[in-house]
Design goal:
Elements lengths: L1 H13 L16 H34 L14
Length: about 80
């Protein structure tokens, strides 16, 4: 799941044919520009979700192996 979320953020901007157009314009910005601006918070959110899933999965795997959820000196990231 983490790889899928990160792949979306990598592949979507590379598909230029999806957004290589001027219309529809938004506040005077052609579609090409505002779509890329929209990708910034979207990819940031996907990256954050992937990170949280990774942290949760790592903690769960460590507990299954009889280890503490977080190594000593590292608290849970809040």
């Amino acid at each position: 799941m983490v790889a899928v979320l990160l792949a979306i953020g990598i592949v979507l901007p590379l598909l230029v044919g999806l957004y290589d157009q001027e219309k529809p314009a938004l506040f005077g910005f052609p579609f090409f520009f505002w779509f890329q601006f929209l990708l910034i918070p979207l990819v940031s959110a996907l990256t954050f979700i992937a990170f949280r899933l990774s942290v949760a999965t790592t903690a769960r795997d460590r507990e299954r192996q009889g280890l503490p959820a977080h190594p000593e000196g590292e608290g849970e990231l809040r």
